[in-house]
Amino acid sequence: MNPHLQDLHPYPFEKLRALFEGITPPAGYSPIRLSIGEPQHATPAFIRESLVDNLGGLANYPTTQGSDALRKSIASWLERRYSLPAVDPATQVLPVNGSREALFAFAQCVVDGAKPDALVICPNPFYQIYEGAAYLAGAKPYFVNNLPDDRFASDFAAVPEADWQRVQLVYVCSPGNPTGRVLSLDEWKQLFELSDRYGFVIAADECYSEIYFDDANLPIGGLEAAHRLGRSDFRNLVMFSSLSKRSNVPGMRSGFVAGDAAILKRFLLYRTYHGCAMSPSVQAASAAAWDDEAHVAENRRLYREKFDVITPLIAAHLDVELPDAGFYLWANVSRLGLSDTEFARRLQAEYNVTVLPGSYLAREAHGVNPGAGFVRIALVADLAECIEAATRVATFAQQLSNNP
User: Fold this and answer.
1) Which cofactors are named for this entry (predicted)?
2) pLDDT above 90 for 57
3) DSSP E strands: which ranges in 156-284?
4) How far apart, in whole angstroms, are the C-alpha atoms of residue 63 and residue 257?
5) Domain shared by 16 and 164, yes or no
6) Do 141 and 131 contact (CB within 8 A), yes or no?
7) Chain mean pLDDT for the chain
């Protein structure tokens, strides 16, 4: 067996099930699950129809590179969304079966596991796929803490020179999961300069890019930052995106990677052996989704409506602010005198609302677990259910304040 399997941690939701063992929530409260980032808005009808209309494609083996039509749709979307010059759909775009699969596979392709001291930098807290990908590629994760005192920025300047010499891959998540923070152009510039100096590859996870709250300040993407900084070849940069959150189709498992053509050429070779070609019917529906923005604007409106109402309800009792983007509230519960795990357990037991303890999304690094004391609240349910959940959270928090 692969010896690195023993390095893998239980997934956060496995820990959550163990935390809730023995709990029987009160029957008077219907369950509300705000722990998992699974979009619950309706899938647009035209995407479903496109999927059904193209079922004839199931009679054909798909190519790993995907259809010309899908790659052109993705390239055109990138050009529109990020004001990029021509993106080459043949060399700079590659469809994938959801960003999760690609984020994991990318490390297996990029990391030289023959070097026993290889490092993969991950934000902390983080999406656990980064950590698992690093371990199974034969590297070790190096965690860069995202702390509230610096608005959850990654302090790359704090990484020692000796460690940078060992870094082969850097995962960044912007907008961040769970913090919702968007990297600035200056932060991208710093990261590109470090990449030039040390030769590592940047994997930019941008799956939440289309859920934002200010039309005048769209989240900047990695490719956009590279272009604005004169790096239009996107050297050593690959971005990952997905239709799951943007178009409410997590079950379609459809996303793409784009960026450095030389890296994507090698990643395509890897994927040819990996056996991960996207179904032709899913490709057709995906192209239709990337070509349409009206449903994305409506999806964004629904999230904005929820955040406008829910954020002040929660902020009256917990330390939380509207994120830059994404659909999570990253709420600090420390002032209530409970750990994040005890808060989540009691909220489940007493009010039947499920949130995810922040410590489950982070690792202790540099003397601290940056997720400790926080809970992640995914505002994925409909408005009425989110309001009900927020009301219960507020009642619970008030109860704790009155009875410390």
Assistant:
1) pyridoxal 5'-phosphate
2) no
3) 167-173, 201-205, 237-242, 255-259
4) 16
5) no
6) yes
7) 97
Strands across the sheet with 167-173, in order?
A: 93-96, 255-259, 237-242, 201-205, 167-173, 119-124, 140-145
Element (H, E) at 246: helix 243-247
Q: Which two tokens stand for residue 297?
A: 């604007």
Q: Are residues 310 and 288 in the same domain?
A: no
Buried-exposed string 106-142: b where 16+ CB fall within 10 A, e elsewhere: bbebbbeeeeeebbbbbbbbbbbbbbbbbbbbbbbbb
> Exposed, middle or buried, 403 (CB in 10 Å: 0-12/13-18/19+)?
exposed
- C-alpha–C-alpha distance, residues 133 and 126, integer Å: 13
Count of the separate structural domains present in the chain: 2
Cα atoms in the 13 Å half-sphere on the side-chain side of 269: 7
Contact 354, 240 (CB under 8 A): no
CA 345, CA 339: separation in Å to the nearest integer? 10
**Pair of tokens at residue 319:** 């330390």
Asked if 219 and 213 count as a contact pair (C-beta separation under 8 A), the reply is: no
All residues at 6 or more sequence positions from 294 whose CB lies less than 8 Å from its CB, including other chains: none
CATH assignment at residue 22: 3.90.1150.10
Contact 394, 316 (CB under 8 A): yes
- Please say if the pLDDT value at position 143 is more than 70: yes
The reported pTM is 0.97
- Give residue-wise pLDDT tens across range 200-216: 999 999 999 999 999 99
DSSP output for 183-202: --HHHHHHHHHHHHHH--EE
In a shared domain, residues 340 and 229: no
Cβ burial of 302 (10 Å; 0-12, 13-18, 19+) is middle
Average pLDDT over residues 150-170: 96
- Domain span holding position 302: 3-42+295-402
Q: In terms of domains, do 65 and 195 share one?
A: yes
Give the pair of three-digit tokens for residue 162.
Answer: 């000796």
Distance CA(29)–CA(32), nearest Å, equals 9
Amino acid occupying residue 62: P
